[in-house]
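Handoff note, outgoing to incoming analyst
You'll be picking up this chain. Sequence as last confirmed:
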Amino acid sequence: MRFIDPHIHMTSRTTDDYAAMQKAGIVAIIEPAFWLGQPRTELGSFKDYYSSLIGWERFRASQFGIKHYCTIGLNSKEANNEALAEEVMELLPLFICKEGVVGVGEIGYDDQTAAEDKYYRLQLDLAKEANLPVQIHTPHRDKKAGTIRSMEVALEHKLNPHMVIVDHNNEETVRDVLERGFWAAFTIYPNTKMGNERMVEIVKQYGSERIIVNSAADWGISDPLAVPKTASLMLEQGISIDDIHKVCYQNALDSFGQSGQMKESDWMDNTSIDQSQKLFNNSILRGGQLPTIGEIRTNPIFDSNIIR
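Most recent structure output, in case you need it:
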């Protein structure tokens, strides 16, 4: 079984994670631009970060046989620095049309401030103008109200719900998102957002239409194998292969594939790796390591399927 993780922050992860993800069957990932754990203070740090998402990180993933895509945006936390946010808004159009960019994201609300609202709306207009999908971060506090507000503002700006992926859903928000015609993404993240046992119950109740599973693995305690582990648990719990394929692969491809930048042939036609390659005269290898060159192999063995 092949998997897509459509929300993972590999900038924060190691090469061991890439190797484990490839062995577990992850063939493609989407890395949303996000908050790095502390506020940035200069425009240049945004520029270099966006450049790394379309450059070095894409190369690093390729060295493990994983196709890397990204979404580009101004995250809600840093939207509250309005002086810097104004500068970042000038930068975004230069990046959203680059190769491998499959949407504007992750954008939306955190504390639901006036500044967050202003830059969320501006980025919705930017996505609409570029005809790109939108990846919405929903707030962790006052989740339901923030999720509904995110969708209402998107509709106010004439976004087609089919072009909008609403992320970090839970049992409280899923019905509203699906009934309005948006994609409903769920983040399997230890101890917060969503556990994979709960995810199984959601698929049992709501089916697989427009539901997407991701890990959002980042610099916090998180699991880059959350998608294949959840798929494994679904199989154990009697979810059909077809439904697992939809929520852990096909729906991510169908939603972000609307960008025109992400096609199944990207990884189906490229089944080998060559770690002797370099980017900017830099390699992933260190200290005389021998490169792996040849066909990609998978070996899906998990220590535990359960993420609570």
